[in-house]
């Protein structure tokens, strides 16, 4: 059932078939629901219609989902950061929807948020126009760190996870710089295996 809360036992060790077949570079992903009607309109409203109150609701539910799942307080990230937008896209839109979710999530989890931890250094074409392999190539070198992450558990926030290519590229960048763990927090994800 979309946007409901489930207990720890149901989430503790679940892995989709894709992650079982090929271990992704990130360590975990929390997602509230599948990206499908009618919830897809919420993501569109946040991303393109500046319905920013949705970010607070997504973050509140993500915090609860994560806290219900974690076994120890140390499971909580050391820092939360959004998937960065390209400068041009940020100027056009006027806000980063991932940052809107991330800062509220960080407050709920009582951890620092850093909107500038990761920078998008390549203005990529929108991922929605590409297949999985093209998405991976598109964002493969698009990110650069602006801060230190060595030994940290980094939480990355995005509104929608489609193929996971963007989050994989970010996780690779973070792990190459010494991040101990990378956990994704996404409002909605495209249904997978």
TrEMBL record:
Alphabetized Gene3D superfamilies for the sequence: 3.40.50.2020
- InterPro entries referenced in this protein's UniProt entry, alphabetically: ComF/GntX_DNA_util-trans, PRTase-like, PRTase_dom
Which residue numbers delimit the Phosphoribosyltransferase domain?
A: 98-186
Tell me which domain of life the UniProt entry assigns to the organism this sequence originates from.
Bacteria
The Swiss-Prot or TrEMBL record describes its family as follows:
Belongs to the ComF/GntX family.
Q: What is this protein called?
A: ComF family protein
């Amino acid at each position: 059932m979309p946007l409901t809360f489930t207990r720890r036992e149901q989430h503790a060790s679940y892995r989709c078939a894709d992650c079982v077949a090929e271990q992704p570079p990130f360590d975990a992903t929390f997602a509230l629901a599948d990206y499908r009607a009618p919830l897809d309109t919420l993501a569109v409203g946040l991303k393109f219609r500046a319905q920013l109150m949705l970010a607070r609701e997504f973050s509140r539910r993500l915090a609860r989902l994560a806290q219900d799942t974690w076994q120890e307080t140390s499971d909580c990230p050391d820092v939360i950061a959004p998937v960065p937008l390209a400068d041009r896209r940020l100027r056009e839109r006027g806000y980063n929807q991932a940052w809107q979710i991330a800062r509220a999530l960080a407050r709920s989890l009582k951890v620092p948020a850093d909107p500038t931890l990761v920078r998008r250094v390549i203005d990529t074409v929108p991922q929605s126009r590409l297949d999985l392999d093209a998405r991976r190539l598109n964002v493969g070198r698009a990110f650069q760190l602006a801060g230190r992450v060595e030994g940290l558990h980094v939480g990355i926030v995005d509104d929608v996870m489609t193929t996971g290519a963007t989050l994989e590229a970010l996780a690779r960048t973070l792990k190459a710089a010494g991040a101990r763990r990378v956990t994704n927090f996404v409002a909605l994800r495209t249904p997978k295996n």
